[in-house]
């Protein structure tokens, strides 16, 4: 039995003793189709007053094996990880966050080009990041959860591979019931905040400040 599967069994038995945790009481068969969810890009990202003739490559974030999945993680405590039984992300978490960061930078209108790789083989800047938290966390009573996203970002100048700036972004979403849709909305609230913070910081390093919200 693998470590992850053993965690599922132990945690599943524990959650079966809790009331009000319908999303967590059973894990189902591995062949059961899972409902798919995705996070949205920020709806009200500030617009830049001008466009810089600069390009930005948003690289695929790195992460640990437990987060490199399309399953939606929830932690009952600091040392245990499991996944929602009947739901998954539409893509693996790192791929989803890469797409969201791309959209967020593009939506500002601040840069001439934003993509997953440099335009024409060479570019101006690259955003290199690592996801260290991307999960829901049960509150002590076990009847609700918060969500947490933590991302370490580095802005790299492509011409000499110099790291111009580094920053850690950590956001906690609002407390929500353990039903799947409520948790997804909490994830959306957390991702909106972290994406706007990353975009504001990244553009300021490149040389442009967005207006205040």
Describe it for me?
It is built from three helices and ten strands, in the order αβββββαβββββα. It has 213 residues and is of the alpha/beta class. It has a single domain (51-206), classed as 3-Layer(aba) Sandwich (Rossmann fold), CATH 3.40.50.10610. Strands 1, 2, 3, 4, 5, 6, 7, 8, 9 and 10 form a ten-stranded mixed β-sheet that branches. A hairpin with a 4-residue loop joins strand 8 and strand 9. Helix 2 (93-108) crosses helix 3 (180-206). The N and C termini lie far apart (51 Å). The relative contact order is 0.19. Mean pLDDT is 86; it is low at 1-23 and 25-29.
Total of DSSP H or I helical runs spanning 4+ residues: 3
Poorly predicted tracts of residues: 1-23, 25-29
The major sheet is characterized as: 10 strands, mixed
User: What fraction of residues sit in β-strands?
Assistant: 35-45%
* CATH class descriptor name: Alpha Beta
> What is the helix fraction of residues, given as a range?
25-40%
Tally of DSSP β-strands:
10
CATH topology: Rossmann fold
Number of domains: 1
Task: Give a short overview.
The chain is of the alpha/beta class. It has 3 helices and 10 strands, in the order αβββββαβββββα.
Keywords:
213 residues; alpha/beta; Rossmann fold; ten-stranded mixed beta sheet; 3 helices; elongated; disordered N terminus
Topology:
Blueprint: H1 3-15, E1 35-37, E2 52-58, E3 62-63, E4 71-77, E5 80-89, H2 93-108, E6 111-115, E7 125-138, E8 144-157, E9 162-172, E10 176-177, H3 180-206
Parallel strand pairs: 1-5, 2-6, 2-7, 3-7, 4-7
Antiparallel strand pairs: 4-5, 7-8, 8-9, 8-10
Helix pairs in contact: 2-3
